[in-house]
Amino acid sequence: MAEKIIVDGRGSFCPGPLMELIVALKSAQVGDVLEVLSTDKGSANDIPEWLNKVGHEYISTTESDGVWHITLRKAK
Amino acid sequence: MKKILIVGGGMGGTILANNLARRLTNELKTGKVRITMLSASEKHMYQPGLLYLAVGKITPDELYRDQASLLEPGIEFFVDPVEEFKLDNNQVKTKSGKTFDYDYMAIATGSRMFPEGIPGMVEGAETFYTEDTALKMFKRLQSFEGGKVVITVGVPHKCPMAPLEITFMLHDYFKDRGLADKVQLHYTYPIGRVHSLENVAKWAAPEMDKLGIKYDTFFNIKEVDAKNKILRSEEGVDLKYDLLITIPSHKGMEVVEKNGLGQNGWIPTNRTKLNMEGRDNVFILGDTTNIPISKAGSTAHFEADTLGENLAAIVKMGMPVREYDGKVFCFIECGKDRATYAMFDYKNPPDPKAPTKAVHWFKMAYNKLYWISARGLL
């Protein structure tokens, strides 16, 4: 299995973690697993919401020391 | 002698060169340091001016100065773009076939719009990220007599305020032409609010409501059906348009990709030290980095300030003196005669105030002051 792709959006107010994820997904392959790191707690809501709208697979969200880790799989 | 090579003559490269030349005046005079800049153009463009060109507020000649005229004495300047980076040998090879050695190198080659990445975008949309496209957009606006104008945003893009600025400026442009009742502006944005900065979005959405500007969020461009004038999103929404204006997605420069320095032309960069990951004597500035902050002249400016101070300190005492804190300052034009600004860094979000005429006029002044800024004096 390919290594997880880390999208490090910590400290990014602009463009922000979701926009960084959108960029990373363009280069990823279908089936790749990505993990977004975010210091914005809003990411825990808006990233899964967007994944649901666009049709990628949301896997999980965890939080550790103020960093949210959102994991997903590129589905299309 | 320490050789400092700067690749790229845009905002970041120019500020860095001038900053270094002033900090290392004695070292330059005594031959202890050499500062060399390699650029692809003899002209320096004020890129934020393209926004104004697109709505007829400035003319193309106001965008340019001779690059050599912006540089401090003592800086060697060659219009000879780099084609090959030989990082293991501390060398670059240029278009003319020359080889330049360096002890320290800064790469600040910028970014380019990439509308070709979206099917139908080049044929179907207007944009303003080059002189030619901005002029073409203005001509199209001048002949537009009414209908639905869709403003759509690709990712990643240069100048994060441009989507809002062009939308508000178009509102006033059409109002001034007496077309306010005949034009419907419709804005789309890739994430779940109208701007990536939450506080900016909180201000901008009610402003759009007040002005009658419609908007769709979570809208990522999939394709443009230019024949039938339909914009389609990855999220499954179709939008009909009469005039489509895009903030196109961007890539780094081709030379970066060709040399394998970074995917899509973005070079992996340490976010506080600004060195290329895995290289201690190669530094990256501005749009060229992969740091997750705004691709904007302001970012390049503050990074160049930091790097100039650090490189001069490295030459003088063998070590850098400070870290880049992620500082960005962006004006936000909110129409033809009012503006605000957003200032933020890695730890502190912006808190934009209500737009005022005073900030707009300061921005207009900055459009001229930029040339002092490029010289590293502001």
Give an overview in words:
The complex is a heterodimer of chains A (76) and B (378). Chain A starts with a strand and ends with a strand. In chain A, a hairpin with a 2-residue loop joins strand 3 (57-64) and strand 4. Chain A has 76 residues and is of the alpha+beta class. The longest helix of chain A has 12 residues, at 43-54. Chain A has helices at residues 17-27, 43-54; strands spanning 5-8, 33-38, 57-64, 67-73. Chain A has a four-stranded mixed sheet, with helices on one face. Chain A is built from two helices and four strands, in the order E-H-E-H-E-E. Chain B has 378 residues and is an alpha/beta fold. Chain B has two domains: 2-110 and 253-317, 3-Layer(bba) Sandwich (FAD/NAD(P)-binding domain), CATH 3.50.50.60; 114-250, FAD/NAD(P)-binding domain, CATH 3.50.50. In chain B, 31% of the residues lie in helices and 25% in strands. Chain B has eleven helices and 21 strands. In chain B, the strands form seven sheets. Chain B has a five-stranded parallel sheet with strand order 5-2-1-9-19. Chain B has a four-stranded parallel sheet with strand order 13-12-11-17, with helices on one face. In chain B, helix 1 (11-23) runs parallel beside helix 10. The two termini of chain B are 29 Å apart. Classes of the chains: A alpha+beta (76), B alpha/beta (378). Chain A binds chain B through residues 8-20, 22-23, 27, 42, 46, 49-50, 53-54, and chain B through 155-156, 160, 190-192, 196-198, 218, 220, 234-235, 263-264, 271, 292-294, 326, 328, 342, 344, 346-347, 349-350.
Short description:
The complex is a heterodimer of chains A (76) and B (378). Chain A has helices at 17-27, 43-54; strands at 5-8, 33-38, 57-64, 67-73.
Largest sheet of chain A: 4 strands, mixed
Extract low-pLDDT stretches of chain B.
Answer: none
* CATH architecture term of the largest domain in chain B: 3-Layer(bba) Sandwich
Any idea of the CATH class of the largest domain in chain B? Alpha Beta
Strand order of the largest sheet of chain B: 5-2-1-9-19
- How many strand segments of chain A? 4
Strand content of chain A: 25-35%
Unreliable spans of chain A = none
- Gross morphology of chain A is globular
How far apart are the termini of chain A?
A: 18 Å
Spatial strand arrangement across the major sheet of chain A: 1-2-4-3
